[in-house]
Amino acid sequence: MSEAPATLHARISQAAREVRATCPLAGSITNAVTVNLVANAQLAAGGSAAMVYLADEALALTQVGGAFYVNLGTLLPCHAQSIPAAARALRDLARPLVLDPVGIGLGELRGQILDELRDAPPAIVRCNASEAIALARQWGLLEGDEAQGPRGVDAQDAVDDARAAAQAIARFIDGAVAVSGETDLVASADRVVEVEGGSPLMTKVTGMGCSLGGVAAVYAAVTDPFTAALAAAAHYKVAGTRAQRDCAGPASFQLAFVDALHAIGPDELAAEAVLRERGR
Amino acid sequence: MSEAPATLHARISQAAREVRATCPLAGSITNAVTVNLVANAQLAAGGSAAMVYLADEALALTQVGGAFYVNLGTLLPCHAQSIPAAARALRDLARPLVLDPVGIGLGELRGQILDELRDAPPAIVRCNASEAIALARQWGLLEGDEAQGPRGVDAQDAVDDARAAAQAIARFIDGAVAVSGETDLVASADRVVEVEGGSPLMTKVTGMGCSLGGVAAVYAAVTDPFTAALAAAAHYKVAGTRAQRDCAGPASFQLAFVDALHAIGPDELAAEAVLRERGR
Amino acid sequence: MSEAPATLHARISQAAREVRATCPLAGSITNAVTVNLVANAQLAAGGSAAMVYLADEALALTQVGGAFYVNLGTLLPCHAQSIPAAARALRDLARPLVLDPVGIGLGELRGQILDELRDAPPAIVRCNASEAIALARQWGLLEGDEAQGPRGVDAQDAVDDARAAAQAIARFIDGAVAVSGETDLVASADRVVEVEGGSPLMTKVTGMGCSLGGVAAVYAAVTDPFTAALAAAAHYKVAGTRAQRDCAGPASFQLAFVDALHAIGPDELAAEAVLRERGR
């Protein structure tokens, strides 16, 4: 990992260059619906992928991979052990965990796992606006009158409304939070950057958010959490903008999107990324 | 849910219009092979998707979704609890369950679950001809000399041969049965409609039947079971006919098919659906 | 199963002809990441697919299918029973098992299953170079100074380095080993054939190796293990060469590849397969 350059665009292109040069492995425990897209997006972005269910396999992957991705969709009983075990191992190794708290509020196990992750926190959280608010609430990071109760898999809150939650989480984990939406928001403890671009069809393909988390883990293997979250979000927005141009619907969009993830080089990524700093 | 219009075509276009307007959520417990296509087809048809394995998560989804989809492929031990629990919850909530009894006859758990579903029956069964016969037999709805023994995942019986079975199931569940084949057959207690169209390549892509069940659940969230089964079957046949035109093989067919599911508006769907009423 | 013709090319085209004529079923226990591609590749190559997790379902599939495929990726606790049970059933039925030992060395269960498979061995092993070496070591088939320790999911060893391991495994199982790489290597107890072609993009799509194992099982249902492994490897290389021509990246490559698997007839397959015999 080299010294990070000064500008955001330079940090993104350098991260992309290191991913292309080193093909870093990011192991995953991720959901059954979108696991294939997660792996293919990680490969297309320049990384390596390996998915597991069992705790001892997850522990082995935390040791050989540069980062690890946990997505809470489609939980099975074995995840009660394997996800917290992986998170603790990563904490002890000081290796980055990327968390997608999808489905937060749905069922008992998800809440129990998120309680355990409070003590072995991720370096990056990738989520939508309502999930950011729900996670900040569950970890006791927010006060005030925000609505209680379970939050689902849809983005019910505007990304901007989740800014306070994202910053609270970023400070608590001393890492970064990427909130996906029409405009993405990437927050560290002291900076907030908006990332523009993409396509409305991204909401019509399952797993765009899940696979963004997986790609963020690939980037996290080569750079700091904030740069990794930003590079992944920018890579997705640029690829989404490109894929939108020629597609005829959600399936051809997904195909063009993965092709674009693969085609976009580090310099193009930096040149086409539309970033706006909102605070620091 | 508005009053259903008189003609079948009008009922289909109205259902499609309501799906587009409300983006209804249909939760699923479905198989690992085709779960990604189920979710993408539900999104392309205008609905929302959420998949789970665990019983308490399924119960939570039955409460927030307008309908629920259960597909018996790739069973895991946890499905012994979660599928019957979801079915009983839906019965008590009077919300529609769509069932795909894929693999009926294979293994012990599948039969045990289907026995439990007899007392918490689906509103719609989506299956092929041999599965319809096997299910009608297992639930004791048929008599006579039809062949005994387990039936597999292939359509060994012509759709027309399954007409009696489909009607017997439809009467028993007081709902609808959609039997997929070269010509689909949709039966209620007192009507049978054939749906024509589609493509021979639909048998060369895994999950066309599974995902039809998922789309039927999306429609079941906004209309009665018979209209929902008919609208989903028609949507699939029309999309299959369109996708057949330009494709070069099964993978490009699947891509064009999902794009077509998304592109076909309510009026086009009604205009292109080829229906033939066989009895009432 | 007819008498095998004399030349390798003739054996391949005859196997492809029998697959197209009989649409053989090969059941699978395979990983969640790539299960959809495995099924679609099996269908595109002319076979039938059915995937299970549970032991009694696997046993039922071994009885109705002409061959069976086991892939060790994404293991779950239930696989501790179902995989060895399926392997023993196939041994007792004298039906071919195709094994992909992906992830060998990762976690305890995978090693335990592979120990059990030593006594109920596959007819075909499909793997990469490092996996071939690791498997030959685990089964005690190699001696010398090859590197110890767990081997991952990437091909760390050149295919040629794995030749000794592949032949040792082929002799031990009295079957065939297909080692995937830039040039594939297919070994029986007394022959080694290299298969050329394909595309560099095959390493950028998850599941090319997994699905090759599934297609090898389809071929194994109609011919001897060596011919089956060779036909599947040749089918993949020819389809990969064709798909490479027009694609714009890994996703369009995968689509063109599956279309090509479906489009390539037995005569084209034999005409376009590039084989080189290395020893007998």
From TrEMBL, chains A, B, C:
Example GO biological process: thiamine diphosphate biosynthetic process
Binding-site residues, ATP: 126, 180
Binding-site list for substrate: 51, 207
An annotated Gene Ontology molecular function: hydroxyethylthiazole kinase activity
Pathway info: Cofactor biosynthesis; thiamine diphosphate biosynthesis; 4-methyl-5-(2-phosphoethyl)-thiazole from 5-(2-hydroxyethyl)-4-methylthiazole: step 1/1
Reaction equation(s) it catalyzes: 5-(2-hydroxyethyl)-4-methylthiazole + ATP = 4-methyl-5-(2-phosphooxyethyl)-thiazole + ADP + H(+)
InterPro entries, per database record: Hyethyz_kinase, Ribokinase-like
Cofactor: Mg(2+)
Enzyme Commission (EC) number: 2.7.1.50
Any Pfam family the entry gives: HK
Its job: Catalyzes the phosphorylation of the hydroxyl group of 4-methyl-5-beta-hydroxyethylthiazole (THZ).
Assigned protein family: Belongs to the Thz kinase family.
Protein name: Hydroxyethylthiazole kinase
Organism (species): Berryella wangjianweii
Taxonomic classification: Bacteria, Bacillati, Actinomycetota, Coriobacteriia, Eggerthellales
Gene expressing this chain: thiM
